[in-house]
Amino acid sequence: MTDLVLPAGCAACGAPEAPWCPACASLLTGPHRVGLPGLPPTLAVGRYAGPLRTALLRYKERGRRDLAVPLAALLAAGLSGAPVDLVPAPSRAAAARARGGDHVVRLARAAAAGRAGVRVVPVLGLARGAADSVGLDAAQRTANLRGRVHVRAPLRPRPGADVLLVDDVVTSGATLRAAVGAFAAAGVRVDGALVLCDATGAC
């Protein structure tokens, strides 16, 4: 439960107002559709810039687990109804250990907390050998994940439930495409994806 405590100040700049000070809140660009080929309908909370980027980096790389709550609240605004199965995108095991746990799973659980009909099913895994994607171009990201995303445990969607992938950042779409492919091989259709930050065009 300690992960679900609101931050004492603004998620981005630390000003006294929580979860976002007026200045940072005014710079949140709002949700939009991400247009990349081969992806299911994908909704991003905002661009990978400004207060959203700052808050994500504080949460992801600097141990600010309390920021999962305001970030997840933004993500949960994209949930149009229930039932929904949220499937976190897989993380490299070494990266998750370095961060004290899987930050995407934590984010998905915070987004689902208290929402009837929404469950988190972390069934995707990433095989050994996948490199850190930072600095890779789109083709390299695709090659890096080819054959490495797999379904670790059977996912049996509930009747009428949407299966939505969850990730923190979409850049080239390689992770989401690999996840869709892994589920397709397992006979499961992915209905859409929710991401915090749209960084398309950055690689």
Radius of gyration: 16 Å
Low-confidence stretches: none
Can you tell me the CATH topology? Rossmann fold
What is the structural class?
Answer: alpha/beta
InterPro entries: ComF/GntX_DNA_util-trans, PRTase-like, PRTase_dom
Organism: Pseudonocardia broussonetiae
Protein name: ComF family protein
Family: Belongs to the ComF/GntX family.
Describe this structure in words.
This protein has helices at residues 22-25, 50-61, 68-76, 93-98, 103-112, 138-145, 174-185, and strands spanning 32-33, 42-47, 84-88, 118-120, 124-126, 149-151, 162-170, 192-198. The protein has 203 residues and is an alpha/beta fold. The chain has one domain: Rossmann fold (3-Layer(aba) Sandwich), CATH 3.40.50. The strands form two sheets. A six-stranded mixed beta sheet has the order 1-2-8-7-3-4, with helices on both faces. A two-stranded antiparallel ribbon has the order 5-6. α3 packs across α5. The chain is globular, with a radius of gyration of 16 Å. The relative contact order is 0.19.
Features:
globular; 203 residues
Itemize the secondary structure elements and their pairings.
Blueprint: H1 22-25, E1 32-33, E2 42-47, H2 50-61, H3 68-76, E3 84-88, H4 93-98, H5 103-112, E4 118-120, E5 124-126, H6 138-145, E6 149-151, E7 162-170, H7 174-185, E8 192-198
Parallel strand pairs: 2-8, 3-4, 3-7, 7-8
Antiparallel strand pairs: 1-2, 5-6
Helix pairs in contact: 3-5
